[in-house]
Design brief:
Elements (H helix, E strand, L loop, with lengths): L12 H21 L2 H19 L7 H31 L3 H6 L6 H30 L6 H28 L2 H18 L12 H6 L4 H14 L5 H30 L1
Helix pairs in contact: 1-5, 2-3, 2-5, 3-5, 3-6, 3-7, 3-9, 5-6, 6-7, 6-9, 6-10, 9-10
Membrane topology: Multi-pass membrane protein
Pfam families: ABC2_membrane
Organism: Jatrophihabitans endophyticus
């Protein structure tokens, strides 16, 4: 007589990986929201910066208001993903909890994806008060389709910059990552056009470098597609290239740190 052995439901590898990503993201999110010293400044700084430097330069123009909004929204997201990753990962690497987490069945790709989800979710939370304030104090005039395009462009552009932060977090110690992130944050924002600066308005040396920066590609994506509805193929391919390069270097840093921790 033949018999069959009962088996429970078999989960696909893709389903298991997705569950691990979501579980890692939930743990990181819970840890982040219980640190008001981190969350409050991260939510307030973009709004304060916009009110000081963005809104006063609109001068009643709806086009200028839209440009300032998307630029400072990018500035807000850039700060969150770079400091959350560049500084946060470098600090986490030295903690006993991080050493324990490394023993769990989740590879670097799943952990990177979880960190990106947390940073993007936190970034969206920071954008809500910024967008509400822009609508209330400036003549921003965007239809629903434009709002959706802008949000999509913000999230797409934040991915390669988030991978840049992850790369810094694994390649440098906390002492090195903090000053380096500070050193990169404002120049990338200014030269990349997130302060609503066109290349022609920049100093000659900065203008020569600006077209090669990932933040310039992101700024162009926001302006051309987010506000204009025209998809910029060159800029989107450049962002994809930056994402691949930063991801490869992040994995190299992760593996190197793993060997150092567990050799």
């Amino acid at each position: 007589m033949t018999g069959t052995v009962g088996r429970g439901p078999v989960r696909s590898s893709g389903s298991t990986a997705a569950r691990r990503v979501l579980l890692n993201a939930r743990l990181q999110w819970d840890e982040l929201v219980h640190l008001p010293a981190v969350t409050v400044p991260s939510l307030a700084l973009p709004l304060v910066t916009y009110l000081i430097f963005g809104a006063p330069n609109v001068h009643g123009s709806s086009a200028a208001a839209a440009g300032a909004l998307v630029g400072f929204a990018g500035f807000a997201l850039l700060g969150i993903v770079m400091f959350q990753f560049g500084v946060g990962i470098a600090a986490d690497r030295e903690s006993p909890w991080e050493r324990y987490v490394r023993t769990l069945p989740a590879g670097p790709g799943q952990r990177f994806a979880a960190r990106l989800l947390v940073a993007l979710g936190f970034g969206v939370a920071a954008l809500v008060p910024l967008c509400v304030c822009a609508v209330l104090v400036t003549p921003v005039d965007l239809d629903v389709a434009a709002w959706l395009r802008v949000i999509g462009c913000l999230l797409v552009g934040a991915v390669p910059l988030g991978l840049l932060g992850i790369m810094l977090g694994y390649l440098f110690s906390e002492r090195g990552a903090l000053p380096l992130t500070n050193l990169l944050y404002l120049p990338l924002s200014y030269a990349g056009g997130l302060f609503n600066t066109r290349p022609d308005d920049l100093p000659r040396v900065v203008a020569a470098v600006s077209p090669w920066l990932p933040t310039r590609q992101w700024s162009d994506l926001l302006l051309y597609y987010g506000l204009g509805g025209v998809w910029p193929t060159g800029q989107s391919l450049a962002l994809a290239g930056y994402a691949v390069a930063f991801a490869v270097l992040a994995v190299v840093g992760y593996r190197r740190d793993e060997q150092r921790q567990y050799r």
